[in-house]
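Hi R.,

As promised on Friday, here is the backbone we talked about, encoded as structure tokens. Could you run it through your design pipeline when you get a chance and send me back a sequence?
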């Protein structure tokens, strides 16, 4: 059974992914591994992921721009910690 969030007029779209999403996840893994003084929780990681994707254009992007977008999202979430 497929996820209904990825159904459009009865067609399953869950197997289609934007390659930028995969690149962002890999870049996040690399960048966060180097943030020794920061231990993000699940919400932080999701916020960083969403902020990064929202800051990138839908068209092709160069690697350097992607890395900067991930770094900027990490810093934005770090500066605004949530109250537990």
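Update: got your reply. Pasting your designed sequence below so it's all in one thread:
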């Amino acid at each position: 059974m497929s996820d209904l969030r990825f159904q459009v007029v009865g067609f399953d779209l869950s197997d289609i992914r934007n390659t930028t999403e995969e690149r962002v996840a890999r870049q996040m893994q690399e960048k966060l591994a180097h943030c020794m003084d920061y231990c993000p929780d699940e919400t932080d990681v999701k916020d960083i992921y969403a902020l990064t994707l929202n800051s990138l254009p839908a068209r092709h992007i160069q690697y350097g721009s992607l890395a900067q977008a991930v770094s900027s999202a990490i810093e934005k979430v770090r500066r605004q910690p949530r109250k537990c």
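One thing I noticed while checking it: The radius of gyration is 15 Å.

Thanks again,
M.
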